[in-house]
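The authors assume throughout that readers already know how a fold can be written as discrete tokens. In essence, backbone conformation is discretised, so a fold becomes a row of integers matching the chain in length. A single example would do more here than another paragraph of explanation. For illustration, here is how one protein appears when written out as sequence plus structure tokens:

…
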Amino acid sequence: MSRTALNSLILILCCAVLFACAPTGIYHTVQPGQTLYRIARTYKVEESRLASINNIKDPKQLKASQRIFIPGATKKLAVPATVTTSKSSTPRSTRKTTTTAKAQAKPATVKSPTRKTTTATKKSVTTTKPAKGIFVWPAKGKILNKFGKQGQKVYKGIEIDLKKGSTVTAAASGKVIYSGNAIPGYGNLVILEHSDSFFSIYGYNHKNLVEMDDFVGQGEKIALSGLPPNGQSARLHFEIRKGKSAVNPILYLP
């Protein structure tokens, strides 16, 4: 067995052990009227902890559709809305009058069954695509090696050109399930666990800035870039995995 194949096998085995004992967590999508305080109370997590993990500096600026990582949660819970939205603040009588006026001004139309079927079909197709934008770039630089087969080598992630000592940040909120250099071929390595069975991997680090069981927010510093063990120029090895399967990071980055 070649050294490259052996290193890949060791990484898979180590990741399998880590993933098996990794803690759970989910993403909660903020609905209109929900507050960070009420979300924290519902999931029984400290509000300050949620703010730190999700890099929220001002809880009052929470927006609808924003994704909040809830560590330790295993299922989504119904969070009651506690803030009155601008839509609900409109007097009921005014809304009723406006609706009636619109109904009188425009005759009611019957939706075409064919058109409805087409819309449903488009929606089902869209949901099968990768959730682009869930992750952000861990660092900015030229891509030296793309995902997949490149010549005689197969890359399970991408390699980003960086100066030694450049800041490497978390691509998404999550928990550190590995921080060390025991896996051959990757130097100092950090592995983060995210919700929906996603994991992100950061290799070739000069120095890791996080430890096992740390929770980190998206964009938070986790390492300083370094040199790969084979003596090539400084760079970051970055992977995204869905379960144990490596996926193309580009499909999930903005």
